[in-house]
Amino acid sequence: MISFDSDYLEGCLPEILEAFQKTNFEQTPGYGKDIYCDEARDIIREACEAPEADVHFLVGGTQTNATVIASLLKPYQGVICADTGHINVHETGAVEHTGHKVLAIPNTDGKISAAQIREVLDAHYSDPCAEHTVQPAMVYISFPTELGTIYSKEEMRAISKVCRVAGIPLFVDGARLGYGLASPGCDLTLPDIASLADVFYIGGTKQGALFGECIVFRNSLLSKDFRYSIKQNGGMLAKGRLLGIQFAELFRDGLYFRAAKHAVELAQLLKSSLKEKGYSFLVDCPSNQQFPILKNDDVARLHELFGFEDWTKIDGEHTAVRFCTSWATTREAVDALLSEL
Fold this sequence. Notes:
The chain is α/β, with parallel strands linked by helices. Helix content is 40%, strand content 17%. The chain has helices at residues 14-23, 35-48, 61-72, 86-89, 94-97, 114-125, 153-166, 177-181, 190-196, 226-232, 241-250, 255-276, 296-302, 331-340, and strands at residues 2-3, 54-58, 77-82, 102-105, 135-142, 170-173, 199-203, 213-217, 289-290, 293-295, 306-307, 309-313, 318-324. Strands 2-8-7-6-5-3-4 form a seven-stranded mixed beta sheet, sandwiched between helices.
C-alpha cells in the first residue's frame, strides 16, 4: 500500500545514513557536547544569519514544544495559540501537563492574526480581576500551520511587533519549516524567521532526519539554563552526537531545502491535477499537505489502496481528507493516486 498519511513514515535521507555509518565507531562526549553538535550549531547559525543564536537539539516535536514553553513561562502564565494549533489538539495535553494553560483563539485557515493577539492581551490587562486569571505571556504559531497554510512576511512582522511591544516571546513551531519556506509564494526566508521569532525550531523528524528537532533562540537571555529544562523534561540524549550529525548533514550544501522542495513540488502537482479534475479543497494549501474534498464512497474505496487521513466531515456525503507528501515521496506514487482519483 502507498501511504500519504504523513511525512515521517520513511527512515531518513541516504546522506544521513552514510554519515552515521562513517562515524559509528567513534567515541565522543555525550549530551550534545561533541564536535558534531558544535559543527551543526555553527552551520545553523550561519544559515539563519544569526551568529549569536543559542542552538539546541531535541528528539521530537511534542518534547520540544513542551520543554520550550515550560522553560519560558512562569507557573501562572499561559500561551496563546490557534484553536487548531498542534499544542492544543494533538499533543495529549503536554503543555498543560507542565502546568501551563493553552489559551486557544479562533483560526482562519489555521492562522491567527496580530489583531487577535492584541485583543487577548488588552482584554486581560484591562480586567480589574486580571490576577485571578491565567496571564497570556507567549504566542505560539506553526509554520506551516496544521492546515498547511503559511504566514506572509507582513503577517509575521505584525505578530512579532505585537509580541515585542508586549514584552512576550514569539515561539514558532517549525516541525515542517522547510516545507513552508519551499512553498510557492512564500516571501519569508530562514533568516527572516530567525529575526522575527524569539525562539523557533527547525524540524528534522518530518524533513529527512531519522529523528530530531533543532531549537534556535535568537535571544540567548531567554535560553539561560535551558539545558536544565532539557534534562528535567527527559530530552537530554546521551548519544547527542546522533542529533548533531543529522543536522550538519541536512544543512550541508542545501540538502534540507532541496528535500523540502521535492515534497512541495509533488504536493502542488497533486493539487493542480485534482483541480483540473474538478475537485474542491478545504483550504488553498501551498505546502506539502493537501486537503481535497471527496465523496464518502470514494474515500472508502481509496482506503483499500492508499494510506491517508480523514480530516473532517463536510456534509453527509463528503469528507475532506489529507494527502501528505514527503522528501521521499515519488512521482510514481502521486501518479498512482491521481490515476485512481
